[in-house]
Amino acid sequence: MAVNRLITCIALLIIGLATFTVQAKDLPALHKAVLQSDIDRATALLEDEKVNNPNQRDQLGSTPLHLAVRSDNIPMAKLLLEHRANANLTDGRGQTAMDMAKGWSMWWLLLRHGALPGVDTSIFLIATGLLFVLGLSVWLRKVKADAQARNLPDAYLTEDCYVDEQESEDQDGQRYHDAA
User: Fold this and answer.
1) CA dist., res. 104 & res. 111, Å (int)
2) Nearest CA to 35 among 43, 47, 27, 44?
3) Of the candidates 93, 102, 126, 146, which lies 20 to 30 Å from 136 by C-alpha distance?
4) What is the pTM of this model?
5) Rounded CA gap, 57 and 168, in Å?
6) Is 60 a member of any domain?
7) 8 A C-beta contact, residue 82 and residue 57
8) Which structural domain range is residue 59 located in?
9) Residue 106 lies in a domain
10) Interval 31-78: pLDDT, tens
11) Total number of domains in the chain
């Protein structure tokens, strides 16, 4: 029985489930403001950088930026980044803000503020780019095939497809075609 509990504890630690929880009362003030999505309070706290460091960590190693990114709070993340929050710091599980980002808007915001994509993010971005290129390639091939089908000589066999042209001469005696 004790062996099963030990194996369970080891398995939980390996897959990254934290058995340690942090009470809200134990969090720094800036972390609380971020979790409550209180931009006004966070702005006021960030004005005094000596007291409230935007890169301060909580007991789990998370910075306020990690909390904002996890909750996909773009305005809060932008505020923190404008106050020099480091987007490349890792939390207690070794993840950067970029690894936690859930969408393009957050990724783009982090990239513009100097975040380096982690391995997971890089793989996702490369895969998405490849899918986009492949999709674009398939679409372009279809457009090309449609254009070729429209330009085949057999497609222009009916008289109403032709434009009536008249041959005319200009003042110098040069011949040219006028579309009617």
Assistant:
1) 10
2) 27
3) 102
4) 0.57
5) 84
6) yes
7) no
8) 23-117
9) yes
10) 999 999 999 999 999 998 777 889 999 988 999 999 999 999 999 999
11) 2
